[in-house]
Amino acid sequence: AHMHCRRNASTTRLSSSRGNPVSTTTALVHRSSRIVPTDTTMALQEENPQEVATALFTKHFGGAPEIAAAAPGRVNLIGEHTDYCDGFVFPMALTRETIIVGKKNGTDKCRLVTASISDVSVESAEFTVANDTLEKGSPAWANYVKGVMKQLPELPGFDAAIATSVPIGGGLSSSAALEVATHTFCDVLLHGKSENSKEKALACQRAEHTFADMPCGIMDQFISTFGKAGHALLIDCRSLDARLVAMEHPDLVVLIANSNVKHKLSDSEYPKRKAACETAVRALNARYPGVTSLRDATLTQLAAVQAEVEDVVFKRARHVITEIVGGTLVTTPDQCKPQRVCAVRATEPWVYGGVCVTEQRVGVCCDHCLCCVCRCVSSRPESRQQQMRLQSPTLPSLAS
User: Fold this and answer.
1) 3-class DSSP state for residue 16?
2) pTM, whole model, 2 decimals?
3) Which entry of 159, 220, 296, 367 is annotated as an active-site residue?
4) Which stretches in the chain have pLDDT values below 70?
5) Helix-strand-coil split of the chain, %, nearest 5
6) C-alpha span between 91 and 75 (Å, rounded)
């Protein structure tokens, strides 16, 4: 699917793919487009998630919702498995998003109903809102909502409907979109407004750690909170400093390919890769006390401890360090190195970043064994011609 950057990330104003704004600070203003039936025999793939969520709410709870919140999915352009190592990442937000609509219900209960745009099934959950009663349970998707609620002051009871156009298990951060949308919804429920902040992203990350058992880095929640249309976001995952990088040149297209590989991060190899990186840090720290994360390490230091760690640990660490450390500033295509891909400067043409993306994907596949990513690398002549066209030095520079 060809995705354009999301115009805004988590916010208390929603905008559809048709660009019609919907104010959500006090009441949900319906667009003139039709309300979508929620008969499970009807395929929802072509529908707008806000329309689906609103229809779900009306069918299951009656009346109209008063609050709505949205947060986008994301695709990461550069920096795989570096965010939990204090490295750099370069994601962009998508028009695919998760929408939550709802209102207070005057009880101590949270009642939820949800549906995915790509799935005709409808599921529900109910639990008390008291913080001391919020625990992980079934259904699993409700744990993301509970986890975020646990990070906030105790909420009043509410009814809410959730719909998403972010593919579930497709690697586009549907979980982070749900978390950030939930946080925004709860902010409005409590305070009548919501502001995007680092603390919001961190609270959503904590929710995933504690209620979804997923030891993720900060990237997904951060880009879902701070994404902006026409831009990617360069994030320093140690300092949490971030810079928007314009990606608006008309020749620039981001193509997201469906590998048909479904995954659930908490049950995948992701935790094992993070554990391998932590093992490497312990070995490095024993010899080099200044190394507290792979952000601090060099390839020379890693080579010095290679005999002390398993081969798979060495490869995982080598990938991350190569992503983060060293290399000269990119000025020509033949100088491109994977580790420089995240060090984007306003004076560097984005076209060279494109070359680095290709080289970096090869490194990811070799050292992190992400086979589905390897399909992004093509040797077809037309792909090479396209790559050469993107390398044209006449294209404009990045602007932050």
Assistant:
1) coil
2) 0.75
3) 220
4) 1-47, 116-120, 263-268, 325-400
5) 40, 20, 45
6) 6
In tens, the pLDDT along 157-172 reads: 999 999 999 988 888 9
Residue type, 321: I
* Catalytic site includes residue 267: no
What's phi and psi for 354, nearest 5 deg? Answer: -60, -40
**Six-digit token pair at 345?**
């400067």
**What's the rounded Cα separation, in Å, for the pair 9 and 95?**
9
Amino acid at 45: Q
**Structure tokens belonging to residue 111:** 């009642």
Helix (H) or strand (E) holding 136: none
Q: For residues 109 and 89, give the distance between their C-alpha atoms in angstroms, rounded to a whole number.
A: 39
> Exposure string (b/e) for 31-70, b if CB count within 10 Å is 16 or more?
beeeebebeeeeebeebbbbbbbbbbbbeebeeebbbbbb
CB atoms within 10 A of CB 106: 10
CA distance 108 to 67: 18
- For residue 290, what are the contacts with CB-CB under 8 A and spacing of at least 6? 296
